[in-house]
Structure formats: structure tokens, C-alpha cells
Automatic annotation (TrEMBL):
Protein name: STAS domain-containing protein
InterPro entries recorded: STAS_dom_sf
Gene3D superfamilies named among the record's database cross-references: STAS domain (3.30.750.24)
Organism of this sequence: Pilimelia columellifera subsp. columellifera
């Protein structure tokens, strides 16, 4: 098991699976860290790749764009992002449109 803590994000690796977790508002420079983490994990073919935003109160448009691009990238290599969102919402997304729909359910102002 590997755990990497980046300023706001925590990345946990368990064998072929990975979890990205945060518990604060996401925006600004966090989108660069998130993009780097997601791309590295997708490049490794990690599956499942879980993004846990249950404790994240808000997302900005930059973070939504990073997540949407990662969903598109995952779908291109026959993988998916597994989202855990506030309110007990769970989604498996394979493209940016599915990602934006899921995010809009929990964060109507972000998507």
C-alpha cells in the first residue's frame, strides 16, 4: 500500500487500485495537482480509480474540467473513474459528459 499526501489531496494505492481523497474546497492550484495525480494513475492503468469527494464542500470550474478530461482519458483506454460524492451519490463515469452530469448532482454551481 502506498500513500502520498499532496497539500490538499491524498492518493492511496492498493495493488492495482487507487483512491484520491480530499476534504476541503477544491480550486485554483489544486487543479494542477489533481491533473498530475490523475494522469499518472491513468498512465499506470490503475483500476478501479476512485475519487472520493464526499467531504469536499465546493469545486471550481478548473477542477471540474480536470475531472472531465480524466474521465475522457479513462474511457479512451477502456477504464472508468469511480466517483463518491456528497449525499451518498456514487457514479462510474467514462467520459466528460457523464462526469459533468454526476458533478452537477452534488455541486450544481460547479458543473
Amino acid at each position: 500500500m502506498g500513500v502520498v499526501v499532496m497539500a490538499v489531496l491524498t492518493v492511496i494505492r492498493l495493488s492495482e487500485a487507487a483512491l484520491i481523497w480530499a476534504d476541503c474546497p477544491l480550486g485554483g492550484s489544486v487543479s494542477v495537482q489533481l491533473d498530475n495525480a490523475l494522469q499518472a494513475l491513468l498512465d499506470e492503468g490503475v483500476s478501479p480509480l476512485v475519487i472520493d469527494l464526499v467531504r469536499v464542500p465546493t469545486l471550481d470550474a478548473g477542477v471540474v474540467e480536470v475531472l472531465a478530461q480524466a474521465a475522457d482519458d479513462a474511457g479512451d483506454i477502456d477504464l472508468a473513474l469511480h466517483l463518491r460524492l456528497p449525499g451518498g451519490r456514487r457514479y462510474v463515469v467514462r467520459d466528460g459528459a457523464e462526469l459533468r452530469f454526476a458533478i452537477q448532482q452534488a455541486y450544481p454551481k460547479a458543473a
